[in-house]
């Protein structure tokens, strides 16, 4: 911004001086997903989850059904601090779904201070699961308004049907990134 300053000196003479002020924009750093801190997963039966108590932008959740009486279940959460403008993000998913799954469920949520975004859900027998494949799921982290905020990631997988066939299951590998 350019402007002029008028000043009167001790003798009463008027002096004009041209001035300018430049305000540098604050650096904008998108979320660093490699700093996503995963907790220790809660695992029941034949489920698995990585990573455990480590930082990573990626995860793998696996629900397998080895026998008629097993009830696999896994839950894990991760947190990431962020202070900055709204940013477009992506969850890149590679899903392997064994044919005939009945009630397998994997859910991924991004929770922040304003939005609870469900990125993936397969629940029950009547909602079709996306077939095996690679998917990109966009989501937005809102502007923090200059305040550091915590982003929470929640991943849960389970079997909702005890009549699934042994050998059925679902494996989801996900990676978070900025777009």
User: At the third CATH level, what is the topology name?
Assistant: Jelly Rolls
Rounded to the nearest angstrom, the distance between the terminal CA atoms is 33 Å
Count of distinct strands: 13
Low-confidence segments, ≥5 residues, pLDDT <50?
123-127
Q: Give the percentage of residues in beta strands.
A: over 45%
Number of domains: 1
So how many helices?
0
Classified by CATH, the class is Mainly Beta
The largest β sheet comes out as: 6 strands, antiparallel
Write down the overall mean pLDDT. 79
Shape by Cα distribution: rod-shaped
Which bin fits the share of residues in helices? Answer: under 10%
Rg (CA only)? 26 Å
What's the CATH architecture name?
Answer: Sandwich
User: Secondary-structure element order, as H and E?
Assistant: EEEEEEEEEEEEE
- Look at the helices and sheets and give the structural class: mainly beta
Describe the structure.
With 179 residues, the chain is mainly beta. It has one domain (32-178): Sandwich (Jelly Rolls), CATH 2.60.120. The chain is built from no helices and 13 strands. It has strands at residues 2-8, 14-20, 37-38, 42-44, 48-50, 58-65, 73-82, 87-97, 104-111, 116-120, 133-141, 149-159, 168-178. The strands form three sheets. Strands 3, 4, 7, 9, 10 and 12 form a six-stranded antiparallel sheet that branches. The chain has a five-stranded antiparallel sheet with strand order 5-6-13-8-11, with no helix packed on it. Strands 1-2 form a two-stranded antiparallel ribbon. It is rod-shaped. It starts with a strand and ends with a strand.
């Amino acid at each position: 911004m350019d402007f002029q300053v008028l000043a009167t000196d001790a003798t009463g003479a008027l002096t004009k001086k041209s001035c300018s002020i430049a305000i540098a924009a604050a650096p904008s750093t998108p979320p660093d997903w490699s700093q996503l801190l995963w907790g220790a997963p809660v695992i029941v039966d034949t489920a698995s989850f990585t990573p455990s108590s480590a930082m990573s932008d990626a995860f793998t959740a696996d629900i397998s059904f080895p026998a008629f009486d097993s009830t696999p279940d896994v839950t894990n959460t991760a947190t990431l601090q962020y202070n900055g403008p709204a940013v477009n993000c992506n969850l890149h998913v590679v899903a392997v779904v064994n044919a005939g799954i009945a009630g397998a469920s994997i859910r991924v949520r991004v929770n922040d201070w304003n939005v609870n975004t469900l990125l993936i859900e397969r629940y029950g027998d009547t909602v079709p699961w996306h077939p095996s494949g690679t998917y990109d799921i966009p989501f937005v982290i809102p502007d923090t308004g200059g305040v550091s905020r915590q982003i929470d990631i929640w991943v849960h997988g389970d079997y909702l049907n005890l009549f699934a066939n042994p050998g059925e299951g679902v494996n989801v590998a996900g990676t978070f990134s900025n777009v």
